[in-house]
Amino acid sequence: MIGFLRGKLVAKTPPLLTLDVNGVGYEINAPMTTFYNLPALGETIQLQTHLSIREDAHVLFGFSTEADRVMFRLLIKVNGVGPKLALAILSGQSVDEFHRCINDNDTATLIRLPGVGKKTAERLIVEMRDKLPKLEGLSQNTENNATEVSVGRSNAKQEAISALCALGYKAAEASKMVQNIAQEDKSCEEIIRLALKGK
After folding, report:
1. What gap in Å lies between CA 6 and CA 57, rounded to an integer?
2. For residue 120, what is the domain's CATH number?
3. Do the Cβ atoms of 79 and 106 come closer than 8 Å?
4. How far apart are CA 187 and CA 93, in angstroms?
5. Which among 64, 86, 140, 171 is least surrounded, fewest beta carbons within 10 Å?
6. % of the chain exceeding 70 in pLDDT
7. Does the N-terminal peptide bond of residue 15 adopt cis geometry, omega within 30 degrees of 0?
8. What is the pLDDT of residues 129-158, one digit of tens each?
């Protein structure tokens, strides 16, 4: 099992990033909560990781905090929640926000996440309630706080739409989500964050 990776950030196109660890490029799927905290390309970062082994692929997931990784691992144990949906949930909410939804039986907020219907929201509340103590006390500290733009400003909105589609939104819905966001000097990550907040 790969517990963490420390290396140079060489590419970031949500939800995929590439880390150069001593000459080996690791492709890592990461939630938007991790992308918000990534430094500029070429900087060294460390990510907590989870390796998912399927019949047809080995997929590596990376997280900027231990709390995100713990929540991801708890989510994929819920009946009907796979790694893709777990990543979408983590992208749409912080661990603290998710914790609040579970405690408050807030299915309405959960349903706004891509791929989460009424039944899935109810199942999440029932199955995650007992697991929440495992999330308490975990540091939400993010060491890398600078968010840099990895692509030109001109196509940041298009990159944001692609990332939202990869997270499970339909193309028309993703386009509508970013349409009304004033681009100005916003990076792809900032546009996605605003789109998810407005959802």
Report:
1. 22
2. 1.10.150.20
3. no
4. 19
5. 171
6. 87
7. yes
8. 877 765 555 544 433 333 333 333 446 777
Residue 175 lies in a domain: yes
Q: Which residue has the tokens 């840099």?
A: 148
Global pTM reads: 0.70
Q: Which amino acid is at 35?
A: F
101 occurs within a structural domain = yes
Same domain membership, residue 73 and residue 39:
no
What is the tens place of the pLDDT at every residue in 149-185?
333 344 677 777 778 777 777 777 777 787 777 766 7
Consecutive H or E run containing 38: none
Per residue in 29-50, pLDDT (tens digit) is: 999 989 988 999 999 999 999 9
Total number of domains constituting the chain: 3
> Residue 177: which of 155, 162, 192, 159 has the closest Cα?
192
Decide: residue 20, CB within 10 A, 0-12 exposed, 13-18 middle, 19+ buried: middle
- pLDDT range class, residue 76, cuts 50, 70, 90: very high
DSSP 146-186: -----S-GGGHHHHHHHHHHHTT--HHHHHHHHHTS--TT-
Same domain, 46 and 82: no
90, amino acid identity: L
- Please tell me the predicted confidence (pLDDT) of residue 137: 52
Q: Does residue 171 lie within any of the structural domains?
A: yes
